[in-house]
Amino acid sequence: MAVPPLAHREIPLFAGLAVVIALVFAWLGAAYGVRMLVEASCYAIIALGLTIQWGYAGLFNVGVMGFIALAAFVTVLVSFPVNAAFWNGDGPALLGWTALYLVIGVAITYGLSRSHRLGLPKSLRTALTLIAGAVTYLAVQGTLDPAASVIESEAGFIGGFGLPVWFGWLVGGVAAGGLGWVMGRITLGLRADYMAIATLGISEIVKAFLKNADWLTRGTLTVSPLPWPVPTPQELGFVFSRSAYLCVTAAMIVVIYVLLQRAWASPWGRMMRAIRDNELSAAAMGKDINRRRLEMFVIGNVIIGIGGAALITFTSIFDPSAFAPLNHTFLIWVMVILGGAGNNLGAIFGAFLVYVIWIMSEPVALFLFQQAEIWGDELFGWQAPGDLHTRALQMRVFIIGLTITLVLRYAPQGLIPEKVMKHD
Amino acid sequence: MPLLEMSDIHAGYGGANILNGVSIAIEADEIGVIVGPNGAGKSTSLKALFGLLKVSEGAIVFDGETITNAVPETLVRKGLSFVPQEYNVFPTLSVEENLEMGAYVRRDSFRHLIDMVYGFFPPLKEKRRQPAGELSGGQRQMVAIGRALMSEPKLLLLDEPTAGLSPRYMGEIFERILAVNASGVGILMVEQNARQALGFAHRGFVLANGQNRFTGTGAELLADPEVAKSFLGGGD
Amino acid sequence: MPEAGLLSVLPINEFVFFINKVVIGGLIIGSVYALGAIGVTLILGILRFAHFPHGDMMTAGAFFALVCASLAPHVGDPFGLPSAFVLMPVAMAATAAMAVWLDKAFYAPLRRANVKPVVMVMSSVGVMLMLQGLIRLFAGTGTRQLDPGPKDIYRIPAGGRDLIVTQPQLLLFIFTAVAVVALHFFLTRSRMGKAMRAVADNAELARVSGISIDHVVRTTWIIAGALAAAGGTLLALDVTFKADLSFNIILPVFAAAIVGGVGHPYGAVVGGMLVGFTETLAVFNWSVLLRPLQPYLPEFVEIPSKIAFVPTEYKIVIPFFILIAVLIWRPTGIFKGRTN
Predict the structure, then answer these.
(1) What number is the average pLDDT over the span C52-79?
(2) Within a 10 A sphere around the Cβ of A146, how many other Cβ atoms?
(3) B121: exposed, middle or buried (Cβ count in 10 Å: 0-12, 13-18, 19+)
(4) Residue B236: inside a domain, yes or no?
């Protein structure tokens, strides 16, 4: 197995982290502590996925939130108990029609866009493609709206398929990978900024769609409780069930980590590193760089999806409004940057460290601002604004941004830099 | 005293040095030509001179002042101008705007300089409002050189001015370079067409492997059988 | 009289409604996008990275204007203008100074270290979060009126219904038009303007020519910051001030800049208008226009109460769709900017 030996730097860092975690347990209790660990471990999985995209392929994915949301939604769709009211009503038939229109319309549109083989001039081809696309859109929208209202009035939402949760996670990961494939195909050849903008945009759209498609997700009414892969707290109590969950996610981390390390040491991995370290000569050797980068982008998104699905399943509630770029994109970026670009162990470390700090920062920030409120009143007669508490939490946004900027400026290697193999 | 003296220059792009002890000296109003095989360090010498890469050893003295590793912006003010080999115009700016950019460091009126450049390169005058990127290769080269002349340099550095030009344009460019020189501007140029360039050079420097190989007047180098054998085979 | 009869048959009211909602609405939001997109395209063209904090910069400008207006609420009274507008130059100057400082503190060091372009973008995302946090900290997350008191509304009667333009909207149009013209003259007639275009074309050659890249960079930030502040303030004057303003605006602004062609300010204006009009056209309820025809249609054809291409909740899809469409079919944009 190609697991690198632990060097000097890593042991004290992990040990320090363990001490901090132990303190949290002592201060806030086991149930809280285990919950924190589970969530951190899910973030660690997501961070591993993001590390592939950033550390190895150099891609700036600012839409992590969207991939997490999509994977979580697919998990709910796959694993939530079947909604009999939906299947017994008119909903499935209407949806079937919609799907049919969609498939036919997309096929025709795509076919038209490729119709240059038939000898059609380009402007005609473009016009026809656009018209076909517009007609498809209107047709689908026209059938979807009534279908949606019917479903909402009859059954609330379409429910799920009642399949096992771990299967849901896998399918969710694949869905996230699929979305990544589409996004990657469009933006990979262009400048890095464009991928950033596009991924940011797609994540907002995914969120908007999930939030508003009540027939699919119950929208703001949310879906809960989400089924777990292990016995729920109702059955085993918080500490035991959460610990069981932790075992599942910890096992996933180990498996993914080992697979990644092996892949990295393999010939495929060496080629990937060659592309990353010296793009020009890799291109000269005939490696199709963008294709490889697309592979890594997709694989990264699959892992992000799996981690995200595990995270949302753990919270036991699917609430599209709760997805926030701060919590589900930028926080993970801090984890990856701090942990060290291109370093899987560093990503795991970064995830746990940053998440512990993040969780602790909420009470700390509120405490600090309360103190400021008291002192300000006493010393200056300053009346704090009523929403000081919400504002206090905004400081966390500032700190996250500051951390990203400072680390990029002063320690772009992160805290655990990747060990560069020296070739002689 | 020579206008320009580069003594024993060692320089590179950060890794290994490309120049390993190059010395070049030009008097005022002279035409100096640097020739040599690919990778000899010809363009690198010009770039080292103009502060575009780091000189680790050696000194460069221009017009009595030491300018080793100086910033390009200041060199323009001191009377040194550089025309790169590629990407040497502002493509979306018009011909006349390109010239105006050459005079950026000046605070006084420079209309007479624009007319001077049109005097050297008449085809530019009628195209003066056209974007420089739309011109042919030869005309673009004229714009590039014209831009460099706008700061009234004492020494003009040209990096392969005829690269990629048809033979007809090549001759024209050489002619105009001679005219510019005749008006009192020193020229130091790197050229692939060694035979032709050495034909009108006052001074010639043959480089190989980042070092001087042969130095002399243009005529001397052309007459030297060793030089002819090693370096003047192609590029006629 | 026959003419009156004809007029009463034509759907003038609905047409005016359409103009109010789509044309004027599109012009408004398009102008705001344009003001933001000019800055973004200049930064993309000269400094070569996507400036994610731009939406927050617009919000910050609005916030500065809010502060100024609350400190001096009656400055505008003699002119019949909102104080925030009269004091807008102050906000613009403050935002410009902030922009220059942000570059000096965060972006310039990375440029000097010659980092990969993607690192610049990441850093700009970090700056975006910092700005967002600070703005929400100081301004709260609620909404405020930039100009307390009723807005002046100008009505142009047209048939049964009036064309409606509010004073802040008129100020926005005028300001945008003036800004575009001023920018045009600046870029084509002034030494610094031409130098900016030169640096956008070929930064290395600009250095070689003796152009001070630092000066050009500073001027770029000043222009970008000032216009961003104007866009944010005028938008807040039209609607309300919300700290959340920024996030929703950055995507359309990027789309506008890229559609117009990176590095082309006129393209940014055209792009802004394009995105703005596409938005208003797409969410417009076309059934309003079709309703007058109802009496003339057969009984069984019933016009739905709402026909819109895109439901308003999904409005954000529109700039994104425009962006993706441009990236697929014409990444250089309308005016053929750079793609690398």
Answers:
(1) 89
(2) 13
(3) buried
(4) no
- The answer to whether residue A422 sits within a structural domain is no
Confidence of residue A145 (pLDDT cuts 50, 70, 90): confident
Establish if A4 belongs to a structural domain.
Answer: no
* Residue A201 forms part of a structural domain: yes
- Average pLDDT of chain C is 86
Let me know how many helices (H) and strands (E) chain C has, helices first. Answer: 16, 4
**Chain B residue with the nearest C-alpha to that of C201:** B90
Task: Give chain A's domain count.
Answer: 2
CA distance A79 to A87: 16
- Tokens representing A91 are 């909903």
Model confidence pLDDT, tens digit, residues C196-247: 999 999 999 999 999 999 999 999 999 999 999 999 999 998 888 887 777 7
Task: Tell me the chain A residues in contact with residue C127 when contact means C-beta distances shorter than 8 Å.
Answer: 401, 405
Residue C41 lies in a domain: yes
Whether residue A202 is contained in a domain is answered as yes
Residue B156 forms beta bridges with which residues? B81, B187
Q: How far is CA C175 from the centre of its chain?
A: 12
The reply to whether A236 and A318 lie within a common domain is: yes
Taking only the tens place, the pLDDT of each residue in C77-88 is 888 788 888 899
| CB contacts, 8 Å: A201 with chain C | 251, 316, 319-320, 323-324
We report the CATH number of the domain holding residue B196 as: 3.40.50.300
Place of tokens 């034509």: C10
Q: Residue C162 is part of a domain; what is its CATH number?
A: 1.10.3470
Residues in B closer than 8 angstroms to C202, CB to CB, are 87, 89-91
DSSP, collapsed to helix, strand or coil, labels residue B57 as: strand
> Across-strand partners of C154?
C165
For residue C192 the two structure tokens come to 């610094």
SS (H, E, C) C26-62: HHHHHHHHHHHHHHHHHHHHHCCCCCCCHHHHHHHHH
Rounded to two decimals, the pTM is 0.88
Domain count, chain B: 1
Domain boundary residue among A99, A131, A156?
Answer: A156
Between A190, A390, A408, which is nearest C123 by CB? A408
Beta bridge mates, A310: none
- Kindly report which listed range (A23-27, A298-302, A388-392, B135-139) carries the lowest average pLDDT score: A388-392
Q: Containing domain of residue C65, as a range? A: 2-142+150-329
What average pLDDT does chain A have? 84
Host domain of residue A295: 10-80+161-410
Domain containing A53 — which CATH number?
1.10.3470
Interface of B with C (CB under 8 A): 50, 52, 72-73, 75-77, 82, 84, 87-93, 97, 100-102, 104-105, 147-148, 151
Residues 6+ apart with CB under 8 A from C315: C279, C282, C283
**Inter-chain CB proximity A398 and C141 less than 8 Å:** no
Among chain C residues, the shortest Cα distance to B147 is held by C209
Question: For residue A211, what are its two tokens?
Answer: 């939030």
Distance in angstroms (rounded) separating the CA atoms of residues B105 and A215? 67
Q: Are residues A276 and A141 in the same domain?
A: no
